[in-house]
Amino acid sequence: MEAAGWPEPVVRVQSLSESGAATIPDRYVKPAHDRPSVNDGTTSGSVSIPVVDLSSPDGSAATARAVSEACREWGFFQAVNHGVPRDPLRRARAAWRGFFRLPVEAKQRYANSPATYEGYGSRLGVERGAVLDWGDYYFLHLRPPGSLSAADKWPHLPPDLRDATEEYGREVASLCERLMAAMSAGLGVNPGRLQEEFGGAEGAGVCVRVNYYPRCPQPELTLGLSSHSDPGGMTVLLADERVRGLQVRGRGGEWVTVDPIADAFIVNVGDQIQVLTNTTYRSVEHRVMVNADAERLSVAMFYNPRSDLPLAPMAELVSPGTPALYKPMTFDEYRLYIRRNGPRGKSQVESLKAHEDR
């Protein structure tokens, strides 16, 4: 297929999966040290990411403590009793499953490019000859309205896809605002402080990436999404309710496989909140395994700072004993790294910290 700004023709992973081949192309085979192994993850009942109950009223000190502790210790948690109705979750899942079941030709009209990543994609980064991930996706900007959220990037089928996605986005964005207040309170600063740094509720950016991981004949050799930390502010993930795949890097370096709770959200800290909190809250590496027997679909919503605002550690969290670890940088400048290089662990945020320390 046409490269559309990519360094080489784009191959849809779904097409590879549906070809019936017993082996995967070499382009998808990870180096031995990056491959999942039979011992990766944890067994049921052992170590897992925290579960945070959000049923307490907004502003609850107990909720703020639980969210803050999870962000400090893990950078990840599952949010239950979060207040988002079940219907938008199920409508969004069903609509996007319908999209990925369309013929490739119907989806190809929405092919994306590295310029904005909006649309139907199958790779991240523009390095020629890079080892690729076993997954397709669809990426959309929901807020703020404007050139990035172009109408021609919305699929026409299924007919309810846009309405379902926009309703889902509104509900989850409202949840993000509540979580930002709890994160701020857990830092001991004004509950609106992080939101202020993001440019206010109206200034914050909202994007959605729907991930589709087709069946893979050799899941032990590849990944659906390579190890990375999220470059934005906060991610709220609606995981596949039937098939596990997400793994989070534990403090001991082990990979912990997440068991999604039905109708819960998996929330994680992004690099921008790590910067703003001067590493009090930390973004954490995570990756996605694939499966030989089942496809997987997840819906990730990214809640990001206004892209042209310089971000640096908040003044309240900086002192002579705890100096600022990062220089100011806009999110526009920061995410160019990801768009050039694709997912590479925590190399971007750590390289900025190392530069400041020299």
UniProtKB/TrEMBL annotation:
UniProt GO MF annotations: 2-oxoglutarate-dependent dioxygenase activity; jasmonic acid hydrolase; metal ion binding
Domain Fe2OG dioxygenase residues, every copy: 200-305
Superkingdom in the source lineage: Eukaryota
Catalytic activity: jasmonate + 2-oxoglutarate + O2 = (1R,2R)-12-hydroxyjasmonate + succinate + CO2
Stretches for region Disordered: 22-51
PROSITE patterns: FE2OG_OXY
Keywords per UniProt: Iron, Jasmonic acid signaling pathway, Metal-binding, Oxidoreductase, Plant defense
Single biological process term from Gene Ontology: negative regulation of defense response to insect
Cofactor entry: Fe(2+); Fe cation; L-ascorbate
Composition bias type Basic and acidic residues, residue spans: 27-37
InterPro entries referenced in this protein's UniProt entry, alphabetically: DIOX_N, IPNS-like_FE2OG_OXY, IPNS-like_sf, Oxoglu/Fe-dep_dioxygenase_dom, Plant_2OG-oxidoreductases
Family statement drawn from the similarity comment of this UniProt entry: Belongs to the iron/ascorbate-dependent oxidoreductase family.
Name this polypeptide is given: Fe2OG dioxygenase domain-containing protein
Lineage: Eukaryota, Viridiplantae, Streptophyta, Embryophyta, Tracheophyta
